[in-house]
């Protein structure tokens, strides 16, 4: 039989789990929320570009191996198709034959056909049981491929596109030391940090400032969910099954479906995940684009190892999340850049904006515009805000689309945190300590209450 | 006014009960409860404590606790059964509730209605429920979210999200004017802190989310109210009497795993996550009764200014939970669903939390005593929105914004249909 000619590596233990791509064998226990768009064949038309992209990002991916596995998977799918077709053709033939039992050679014919059908069914069954593993392995590899690179993404090193005011070169004590002297912060661990006194007022004032200014820039206010499920996390390019995943995972409560792959995570209302969850598996009219939204809220990320306590590596921060969805292929880098510059300039402190090098991007990012302030203690720049450009990478994975006449198209998505307020408090404490200035300036005092 | 950074750290003295914790995540939290032994283990008090437990419908058993106390005191820590008895003793300790205000003792099972403020609005048009108004004006989304953001999740959109921020800004501003100190608090707390404040974190009826211990450090819970973080902030602190009352406030996200399937609690009435402005006051035992009244009056003033109708209830013993000695609930009229719904509460927890978290003050004679802690909701968003939107809806379908919030909402007077929020169509097929 045809199928026995296949040679493939048997995977004894399923090493892969996904809530985003649920194979047939797992669909009985897990509800498949959606099936992401997989356009690997389309991507392969520009294979050289993809290889260069992977190289620039310094990713450990061998595209040729991925392609080989993909071809193998497609081959299995073809064989499955042939067997399914054979099965569907044999059925009616047998039924027809059964109506004429008097025909010569009836017994021999019918037994032959029945045996053929039995073999086809068995082969199909065994092929299906094996193909799920192959399918999951290769599809997850394909989903793990990076987004294409934006033409402005620097290939070797970051590129500064804007700088405001001069940085102070002097060295200061660390912001936590300064904060302790001033009674601004109680730092217990990256998970547990209190802002007090002017630092707490600064947080509120900054939220109120961005709230008003973003409304003036015609952004629509959203108040998002802090929880998201695994399907959204994966759809956004993170892997909730890996130890280093940036979202927190919650323990199932009340014994609710413990085997569910689609777990609950804590990511924060201002995060990309929460915005994408809103649009996942939904379609809108093109006339509604562009969508410009913002959300003042928490951002929760799992800790990255850090040598010393700092506000730069907290698990919980207050952020100004923005989300923009535009028509396909619309590039709004200039617009977003100018808005970020205008919003920061009014605050009256030194900052710069850089375009991040390809090897510093997350796989889902096509371009990342990083807003940085200077830490006088570390004597280096710290990212205090960012805007990432995702093109249609996320909208295809999470089925967020719009109608363009009779065509279904996928919006270009831009998302970021214009400000991580805790990080700004850290930098400003160090900057202002040297200048003997207060954390709250006149502008922010107006927004404090 | 005391600035909270001037607090001193107390080194814990000999204590009786160890809290069940394996991971304190760098917190300076007492590892034992300072039980009021003179009261709890005096046989003469058993009938009184028993009566209190019964009227609060609590699971506690004071006789068993006394027996275990006696047994434990006779055992040597090296005895084989010592640890087992100690475990049982600790568990029983957890079940003994705070005592109850004598006035409240008399109420039986029903709350006492303290007062009504305002009156039920009379509508001369068929008025709608929050969810209907929210949907029509494109202000809220609650549908098709279970598989993406969890059950009972919701998004507030456009002017509804602006209204949320306006309420926070208005309430925080008022608290700061009233000498509350603003703190920005962590939302993920060690189990010890949560349990020390009187909340159950384990078992089928727990309302507390826990981070998955297979992935993250064990015993980390999501805070259900910033009262927990504010109380935890003061753990092991010694405060001078002249600095009391100490008034703190915060804005935080609250996470609650509670479930509900009653029709009255549909929509965003009972949700798993919401924003809340919280008040937390630390006082001497002599001040706490009076301060509870002050907190209640402040809540009443703010809700009155929002022009909503509400009733103030003095809650009966069985509604106090374990920590509260007395609790007032404020229930706002929600004309769309034709009920009074709880939008706020304030509690006097006396020394229940301070004994668990070792929060003391030094009185004028230099003696260290346990403080009393009080907490109150200044503003819990979802239910306040229900009452506001349903009360101020207009015949044309729009909603009038209360006067005091308009300056925080670009001087708009009404909430109208949100045209910038796109109409979404669910993609029904999987691809």
TrEMBL record, chain A:
It holds the Pfam family tRNA-synt_2b. Residues 110-137 form a coiled coil. Keywords: Coiled coil. InterPro entries: aa-tRNA-synt_IIb (IPR002314), aa-tRNA-synth_II/BPL/LPL (IPR045864), Ser-tRNA-ligase_type_1 (IPR002317), SerRS_1_N_sf (IPR042103), tRNA-bd_arm (IPR010978). Residues 274-431 form the Aminoacyl-tRNA synthetase class II (G/ P/ S/T) domain. PANTHER family: SERYL-TRNA SYNTHETASE. Belongs to the class-II aminoacyl-tRNA synthetase family. Type-1 seryl-tRNA synthetase subfamily. This is Aminoacyl-tRNA synthetase class II (G/ P/ S/T) domain-containing protein. It comes from Hypothenemus hampei (Coffee berry borer).
TrEMBL record, chain B:
Keywords: Aminoacyl-tRNA synthetase, ATP-binding, Ligase, Nucleotide-binding. It comes from Hypothenemus hampei (Coffee berry borer). The record marks 377 as: Important for serine binding. The keyword NAD does not apply. ATP binds at residues 256-258, 271-274, 342-345. Belongs to the class-II aminoacyl-tRNA synthetase family. Type-1 seryl-tRNA synthetase subfamily. InterPro entries: aa-tRNA-synt_IIb, aa-tRNA-synth_II, aa-tRNA-synth_II/BPL/LPL, Ser-tRNA-ligase_type_1. GO terms for molecular function: ATP binding; serine-tRNA ligase activity. PROSITE patterns: AA_TRNA_LIGASE_II (PS50862). This is serine--tRNA ligase. The lineage of its organism: Eukaryota, Metazoa, Ecdysozoa, Arthropoda, Hexapoda.
